[in-house]
Each structure stands twice: as structure tokens, then as C-alpha cells.
Design goal:
Structural class of chain A: alpha/beta
Strand order of the largest sheet of chain A: 12-11-10-13-15-14
Distance between the termini of chain A: 25 Å
Shape of chain A: globular
Number of helices of chain A: 15
Number of strands of chain A: 27
Oligomer: homodimer
Chain lengths: 615, 615
């Protein structure tokens, strides 16, 4: 294996190991640091600037002309122009990140600043009643807070609270309602959690809503996975057995509780100081989380229970948060196009794009949104969990030991997460492996691993020796021999794995094709393809095009935007005005039901073929 | 005892026994039928017309000149001009009643008709989803209902409901919120209950909210009575022992449940078909009902927990009503001036009166409101439970066996409820007895029962013989001798009873005096005195003036308006717009705290003296 280089990103402290020659923006993406790059990586906009704290990046000043004068000398570089050739320590200023850019855009759009959460605290010191001013307790408090509504539970608590606390305290307000009363001044203690509820993986980010800063991130496998790999399997379970709804709801709530526990431990925050949760997920995930039966998504015409945003009391869900805390679920578009898509469009600001633009959110459920001519059209497609390493013979999640990059030259070069011995193949490794095998001519456009007699003449023996077939003639490609692997067995890409990838790519590619056809657009007319998903930013653009996952557009038109659904959930947590924009967006997004398209099966079949030569 | 005459009132079917010569309006009032009489009983407005179905009323056509032509011949009479001289059966058209008049006034005031309850039902038949119309269940329903909000519990229930009910059913709506879903078309089944929550007595009226008609009335002793006679005693209990709040809340809720059970049994209605409750009570009663600690009413400066109207989920109070049913509590003015006063002013339309007008609501807590110069000023005064027969040595509630009228000439003439042997003295009997003893010169203006040597020379021996004294010189007057009474003992008015009445009258009279003085008005300037309270319409106006309970105004200026708080609660149940008017009224009523008035003690002391001769 080629030696890997460690890149450390400052502020977050996260690090990755990458092969020499990897673009710094890519390395950053793998560390979860999404650099903004509106010019598509051409080095012209100067937005992705970072400072090299340790390590060398060469002296090609001309490549970094978009930097201010003197900046180069001070160690500043354009992330898109740097290739990693030595270990690096890189400082990433917040303003170079995509997240920051999105918040600024929100601020610019006249919503009055991004940090305007739906929950707020207000410390009040009331004048005690006198004979001249004997207003009721409730009126006295409301006069100090402005017009708020107060639920009977809190009215009941008010007299004792005010008198015991000497007419002082902190009011917790959400959406014009009083949700809590706390002794003393606790206005500096206000936390919230933004969740991305994936079919396979759930990610939560704890925010200090006073500072507007994240304090901890934690992820867990969705506890529902044992009840079915994908949303259809889970819907089927509920259709077969009504009690499964509660089982599945309990599973995701347990996952959420676990994440909250981890977040609170990491940031040393008490869960009772979490006052609000936002969550973005697909239709099935959001409905099960709310306890709403998703059965009607299991049959044509795929009907959702709700589409306007839902706000649920956290207590109703058994979440151990502050009294009166709520869980906000994103509005949904229709069918399988759910809250994660709305959150993603919100975060990507796809509605504000110039010219035709595509958002592809890759997960177990793939969501695709096309913006063109002021319209937004969205569809959902069942990619299956292959991209997350599931249903792959030797697959695994993107965790230490997972092969996440494959390069073939005369040798097989692997990049393993955690710089460990390879234990399995994760989604990006799978894509890389297949793309490289296509380039090498070992796999043909139908996805077949070719027998020895059909292999290209010039294929080096070092690669040729790694191809094997079983008794039924099904091929495999040995990525790492037993002596090199963590398991003591050969680590292989199996013929079956390629079929899984073809299904996953085909579903997404067919969805893209149908949206483009409906809009009368050719792939080349897309000015921007935004690649999203917890896993999207690890995909190498060139390889995604090679296997046909993304349409044939110039690579620089493809931009990683990280986990857009998660970012949308964060923005909604940080800003009530943005949340209101989500509701407006929902009404603008038209749902395209692929199952209604007469050509879907044909498109799907065609999309399962790999492009002849897409490089 | 003089023979009594039975008067039956048609439609309600209620009957009373009265002494010959009793005014028909008074007999009606005692039967709970409050005739409207804006002219004050002068026979000029013609509003109180009734039809004599059986019995004789004389042929004095001139007295009934305000009737339309031919009406007299058809048996129509003005209620205010008829005196009962034979047993009567009387038909009372709804439009002659005070309740009806108030509803018409509401209708006239541009609120779009009185019958517009806060809760409504809507039967919907939805189009099932198709591929062309796959809107979410929630959006599909909301589109049919108009903009409504739906709580998570009902969203969760929606998918199964719509599919099991074949996309048809009845939505129950309250205040823009969906509160229930019912199979089939149940729009004809919609009930509500209006409560008057008195310190001593609780009255509930069951209404069919579709027809806008009452179906049953039931009353019960307030279950809190065992915890203290008046509001101060109950507040004190809670101040001494915090757990008493729950005890007292449970007591009133038990009373309410008992009344609901009786109402449902009488009208053959299921309690789950009761969708809304309105309740009017004084500050203490409303707060305890809601579970809000009234302790701050127990010390200067007498602070209420709330003053804007409260809407509580019935389920929170453990009331067995429809899912999602609510309990509306009236807005409150301040201190002890609570929701019953707002409800009473609403019902009496005191805010619309021409010229200075006084509303006196007599109960354990007396409320007094003065309207003058476009202003409304209200005060509350602790009359104690004497008017309801409590704290009277041989007192009892106005139930069968209670002496409710006393006339002295040479004999003692008693009117006993239910035409039974006398068992005790109720509030009106107490007032009558004292007024008659004052007239006879047996009691002097200080309230003392005079010893033999101080009695007027002309007093008949038949009365003189009924006066007795104990060893300490405390007098009593024998109303019925042992042989005539139900108990086998003498039924007496005791010196102590007169003192209780003096306290009760003094409190109310002092309140009236202070409001008049603040407004710079003399009693004679009052054009109208509205006498309200469950018990108010049983009081004989002349006797109320004789004992100084009411100021010296012409008797015809005094009008019974029945239980105004109860009527206000009914109007609020029948009409959401009226309910909103209650909130506006609250802001217009100024609270006068008698305890702050430097002359209250002086006024109170003076008001405890009976007028020298008020007849």
C-alpha cells in the first residue's frame, strides 16, 4: 500500500489520511469540512482560502492569484488549488466553509440575521404587586414579555414561582408561547439539537443557541435497521403488523436518545437545557418518528400523512429535554420526497440558482431536485443501502478499516479509514473500485467481470492475477490479499457487489434522466450539480461520472455541499425565519412520482448500464 | 297559614305556590322564569306579555293597554299588571323572557346571530387519493375544512380514520383547531354545558348547541362548602396547607361531574357528546377550579393569578366529556371581582345602559357594578352565606320545607317551599321576617329584638306572644310553633340571625355607597337597579329596600334579571363572538378595592344599621 499523508484541520481538530496528490478540498470534505467553491474549483473566486500551518504546498503563486496581496506569503492558499504532497496542518477560517456561506446568505436575504432561533429566553424582574398596581400575576408577566400565550400548566405554576423567586426569573419562549420558567438569570444557557434522520444513519449536532455555535456532533446507526434495510421494508412490516409502528418509533427514539446522551456528555451540557430539536428525514422516517402510520406510502398513489411542518411536544416522544421543548419536523413534498429534501433545498438555496441546477442527495433513499426556469421539481428513488456499505458481500460502513479509496495503476492502491489494515469496503471504495475496473477494462459496461480471454491485452499481470471466478463462473476482484487484510481473508469486490451498485446508480441516474427529460434539458446544460448526503462529499466526482451515477457534466460543475439535509436542520434550528422559509419552499417544489412515468422502467434499465467511456 | 295558590308556567312546566296578591312577575321569577320588563313594571312597554291558559285575572282592560288589539280577548296579559288571586296556568312565550331579550340584543349588536358556538361540527366527504391527486391526508382534510390546526394526536389518528371510514366523517372544530374526528355524520349531536360556579351553589345548564336550546338544568351544593363557608375561609385553608388546593379543586370538580351526570341522565345525552363547557365564578372559585393557587387573594393587595379568559382542556380536569373538549373560564377584573361579574355585566348589558345603573349580584360573595358616564366600576364584598340560609340558627337552603316568605299582620303568615310544614328559614324568608319585624316595631334600627317594655303600644298580642328571651337577654321571634313545624320544635328567628343579616346587608350596602360616592351620585339618580344572583329574583323588592340591602330607589327601578352570571355563561356557550366581547368588557371594568377606601369601615358600620323607615 502506498504511504498515506495525514491532514489535520484546525478549529475542528479532525484529521484524515489521504493518498499523495489528493486535492485539499477533497481531503477537507472527507473530514467533514466543506469548503465553499462557487467557481467550481477553478481558482477564480478565492472563497475557499485556508492557511497552511504546517507542511509544504509548493510555491506556484500564480495558481493563488485570487488571494489578496501578501496573503500567499502569510501561508494562505486556495483550497481548490492545493494537492496534498506532504502531511499538512490546515487552518480553515469559518468564512471559507459552505455552512458559513449558507448562513450569510440567509442573513443577506433580509431575514434579519441567522441567529434568531424559535426558542428564546428572557430574564425579567417584575415589580411586586402593590395596592396601586394589583394586576394579576399572568398580566404582570405578560406585560413584561410582550404578547405571549401561557398554557394552564404554567399559569398554575406562576404564583408560587414569582413569590418564591422574588418576582425575578427567566422565561423560556417558543413561537409566542411561554414554555418554561426558570429561577435566576439563565439566558446564557440555551441549547438545541439538529438531527438528520437517515434511513441508515442518524446524525445529531448540539448547538449553543446563544453563541450560534455547534458544540458536539454524534451519529448512530438508525435503530430501525434491524427491522429492514430500506424504507419499503419498514413500511411493509407496519402494513403486516400494526404494532410494528410503535416498535419502529421506539427504535428511532432510542437512537435519538442515545445521540442526545452522547452530545450532552461530549459538550458537558444537561439535557434539560435542550429546548428545541429540529429533524429532517424522508417521509417514512419523519412519519414513524412522529408516530404517524406510513402505510399509505406502501401502495400507489403513495400518500403522506402530512406535508406542512409538524411541531411535536418532546415529552410526547419521551425525549428527556427541557419542559415544553418541541421537535420540529420539516414540511414534506409528496410521496417519498420528504423533509430531508426540503431541508436540502433550503440549505443549498437551490431555489436561488441561476440557470438549470441539480441537487442529488445520495443515501439509502436518493433524492433529486431539478431547478430550472424558476421551477423546482423533486423526485425520490430507492437506491438501497449499497452506498452505505450494506448488501455488499464484504461491505461495511465508512468507519476505521473501511477501504474508502481505490486507485489502480500497475498495483492496487487502497486508502483505508484510520490508516488501518483493510477490513471491508464502504460506499466510496465500492464506487472507486468499480470505476477503476471499468477504466482498466476488467469490467465491461454491462457490469460483468470479464473472463481472462476477454481482458484487454495490455492489462498488467499484477492486476490480471487478482481476477478469480467461482464454479458458476461468477467473478471477483481481489482488492487485498489475505496477508494484507485485517480479516486474514482476501478482501474482494464480488460480481454481486457490482450488480448492487448498478441498481443503486440506475435508480438515481433514471431519476435524473426523467427530471431532465421532463424539463427538456440535456445533461450538458446543467450549470451546477450539487452533490449532497452524509456520504456525498466522499465520492470522487470523476468516479461518480465514470460509473454513471452523475450525468456527463464537466467535473467542475459538480460541487460537494456536504450533508445538506443536516445543514437545513441546523439552519432551521438557528433561525425561525429560515424555518418559515421552509414552509414556503415546500409549496414551490413539485413532486414527480417516478412510478407514474411510463418510461421509468426503460430509463432504469438503460441507467443500469455503465457509460461506455465517461472520462 | 294562609292558603297558597299554585301557578304553573308552561313550556318549562315549573310551578310555584304563592300567597294571594303576589305579582305574577314575582311568581314567575320564583319559578326561574324572568320576564323582561324594561319599563320597570309600569305596564307601558308591553314586553312581559303572557297568556293565561287557566284561572282568572280580572277584566281591567285599561291596565293592559300596551297589548296589541284583540290580544286581551285571547287571554294575553301583561305579567307586571297581574296579581295572583286564583290558581293559574300561564303560557310564557320565549320572547317575553329576559334570556330571550339578551340573545336578541346580542344578535342585534352585529355579531351575526347568537347561535355561533365556539365548537362546531362539519361533515366532510373527501375524494380518495389518486395518482393525479396524492395530497397528504392532512392537507386533504384541511382543504375541506378551511384553515385549521391539527394536534399531533389527531394527525396520528387520521390515516386509519380516513381509510376505515371510507374518506367520510365528522370533524369537530373549536377555535380554528380540529379537536375530534367522528365516524359518519354526527353534526346533529353537539352539546355544551354552562356553569355558574357559586361559592355555595353550582348550577349547570345543558344546551343542545345545534338547536340553541337548553335541555336540562341541575344544581348542587358546591362540594367545597365543607372546607369553609366563604371564599376567605377556603383561601385560608390553602394558605395553611398547600395540599388543600387539590382537595378543594377535587371537591368542585366532583360537584361538576355530579351535575354533568344529572344533566346527561335528565336529557338522555351521553357525556362524550358534550364538547364545551363555559363557567363563570368569582376569582377564588375560578382559580381553584383551574388548579391555580388563590393564596394571593388572601392578603393585601389581593392579586389574582390571571385576568384574561382561560381555556383549559377538560381532560386535564378529569371531566368525562368529548375528546378535546375545553372548559372556558371568564376573564376576571381584579381582586375578588371575578368571572361571574364579567359574565353578569355581559348578560345584563350594563355597558349599554342609559344613565346611571347598578348591578347587584347577591350571593355569598356580593358583586356590585356601577355604570355611569360610560364607565363601569366594580367591587366585591363578602356578604357571607346568610342569604343562602347558612350561619342562620335554623337556616336552610331554598328547598322544600324552607320558609321563603313571611307576612305579618295580626298573624304570622308563612309561605313554605313545596307547600310543606316549615322546617327552616332560607334567605328570602330571613329578609322578609326581618323587614316585617322592623315594620311591626319588634326590631329596632340597630337590629335589636326589643324587650316587652319597648314594644309599640299597638302591637297585637298574637305577635307579642311570639317574642321570647333567653337568660342572657337575647331575643327570638317564633315564626312557627312546635305543633306547626316540620321539626316538632319552635321555628324561630334568633337575635344572632339578625346580626348575620346586618353583616351581609352592610357589606353590600357599603359597597354600593362607596361606588355611588366615588361617582358623585345620589341613590335617587339611579335609573335602574338590576338585582341578580341565583337567589336575587326571590327577594321582594320592598323588603330588600326596607332592610337597607338596596338603596332607596323607587321600587319600579329595581328589576330582577335572574342569575346573570349563569346567563352570561350560557351566552358565552352559545356564541363565540359574545365570548370575545367578554374579554373586551373586562378591559373596560375598573376594579374598586373596598379595602383601600379609607371610609369603608365607617360606611360598613353605618350600613349595618337598618333604615329608620324605608317604606
Amino acid at each position: 500500500m502506498q504511504e498515506e499523508l495525514k491532514v489535520v484541520f484546525q478549529r475542528s481538530g479532525r484529521s484524515v489520511f489521504v493518498l499523495p496528490g489528493t486535492a485539499l478540498v477533497e481531503a477537507a470534505g472527507r473530514a467533514g469540512v466543506i469548503l465553499q467553491m462557487p467557481c467550481g474549483g477553478r481558482g477564480t473566486c478565492g472563497k475557499c482560502r485556508v492557511r497552511i500551518v504546517a507542511g509544504a504546498t509548493g510555491n506556484d503563486v500564480a495558481r493563488h492569484a485570487a488571494l489578496p496581496s501578501d496573503a500567499f506569503e502569510q501561508g494562505w492558499r486556495l483550497g481548490c488549488q492545493v494537492r496534498v504532497t506532504t502531511p499538512l496542518t490546515v487552518e480553515v477560517p469559518p468564512e471559507s466553509t459552505f455552512e458559513y456561506q449558507q448562513r450569510i446568505l440567509v442573513e443577506d436575504s433580509g431575514h434579519g440575521g441567522v441567529l434568531d432561533p424559535g426558542v428564546a429566553k428572557c430574564y425579567v424582574e417584575l415589580e411586586p404587586p402593590t395596592q396601586a398596581d394589583s394586576r394579576s400575576d399572568l398580566t404582570r408577566l405578560c406585560a413584561a414579555l410582550g404578547g405571549v400565550t401561557v398554557a394552564p400548566e404554567l399559569v398554575a405554576a406562576l404564583p408560587a414561582f414569582l413569590r418564591e423567586q422574588d418576582w425575578r426569573g427567566t422565561a423560556v419562549l417558543a413561537d409566542g408561547c411561554l414554555i418554561g420558567l426558570e429561577p435566576d438569570d439563565t439566558t446564557s444557557v440555551l441549547y438545541g439539537v439538529a438531527f438528520d434522520i437517515g434511513t441508515t444513519t442518524v446524525v445529531g449536532t448540539l448547538f449553543d443557541l446563544v453563541a450560534g455555535e455547534s458544540r458536539a456532533v454524534a451519529s448512530e446507526m438508525n435503530g430501525q435497521v434491524s427491522q429492514g434495510d430500506d424504507v419499503l421494508a419498514r413500511i411493509l412490516r407496519i402494513r403486516e403488523d400494526a404494532s410494528a409502528l410503535l416498535t419502529l418509533q421506539t427504535a428511532i427514539l432510542d437512537t435519538i436518545r442515545t445521540i442526545i446522551r452522547k452530545l450532552c456528555a461530549e459538550a458537558d451540557v444537561a439535557s434539560r437545557n435542550i429546548y428545541e430539536v429540529t429533524a429532517a428525514g424522508n417521509s417514512t422516517m419523519q412519519q414513524i418518528l412522529a408516530g404517524y402510520d406510513p402505510s399509505a406510502l406502501g401502495e400507489v398513489p403513495f400518500v403522506q400523512v402530512f406535508d406542512t411542518a409538524q411541531t411535536l411536544p418532546a415529552a410526547r416522544l419521551g425525549l428527556p429535554l427541557a419542559d415544553g421543548a418541541t421537535v420540529y419536523l420539516f414540511p414534506q413534498v409528496g410521496g417519498f420526497v420528504g423533509g430531508d429534501t426540503v431541508a436540502g433545498v433550503l440549505a443549498a438555496r437551490l431555489d436561488a440558482s441561476d440557470g438549470p441546477a441539480l441537487l442529488v442527495d445520495i443515501g439509502t433513499n436518493g433524492e433529486i431536485v431539478l431547478a430550472h426556469d424558476g421551477k423546482l421539481e423533486a423526485t425520490s428513488t430507492a437506491a438501497g443501502p449499497a452506498f452505505e456499505g450494506a448488501r455488499i458481500v464484504q461491505g461495511m460502513r465508512a468507519s476505521p478499516g473501511a477501504v474508502e479509496k481505490v486507485v489502480l495503476d500497475d498495483e492496487v492502491r487502497l486508502n483505508v479509514i484510520g490508516n488501518a489494515r483493510p477490513a471491508g469496503l464502504c460506499g466510496t471504495g465500492l464506487i472507486d473500485a468499480v470505476a477503476e475496473l471499468l477504466r482498466a477494462g476488467i469490467v465491461d459496461s454491462t457490469g460483468r467481470i470479464l473472463p481472462a480471454e476477454e481482458l484487454p491485452a495490455g492489462l498488467p499481470d499484477t492486476l490480471r492475477d487478482r481476477i478469480a471466478f467461482d464454479a458458476e463462473g461468477r467473478g471477483r476482484f481481489i482488492l487485498a490479499v489475505a496477508a494484507e487484510s485485517a480479516t486474514g481473508e482476501d478482501l474482494c469486490l464480488w460480481q454481486k457487489d457490482i450488480r448492487e451498485l448498478q441498481l443503486a446508480c440506475g435508480a438515481i441516474r433514471a431519476g435524473i434522466a426523467i427530471l431532465l427529460r421532463r424539463a427538456g434539458l440535456q445533461p450538458g446544460e446543467l450549470g451546477t450539480v450539487l452533490l449532497a448526503g452524509a456520504f456525498g462529499n466522499f465520492i470522487r466526482r470523476r468516479n461518480a461520472c465514470r460509473i454513471g451515477l452523475l450525468p456527463a457534466v464537466p467535473h467542475e460543475a459538480i460541487r460537494y455541499i456536504g450533508n445538506a439535509a443536516s445543514l437545513g436542520a441546523k439552519l432551521a434550528l438557528l433561525s425561525a425565519p429560515v424555518r418559515r422559509r421552509a414552509d414556503a419552499l415546500r409549496g414551490r417544489i413539485q413532486h414527480v412520482d417516478l412510478s407514474l412515468d411510463p418510461e421509468f422502467q426503460l430509463e432504469f434499465g438503460m441507467a443500469m448500464l455503465f457509460p461506455e467511456d465517461a472520462d
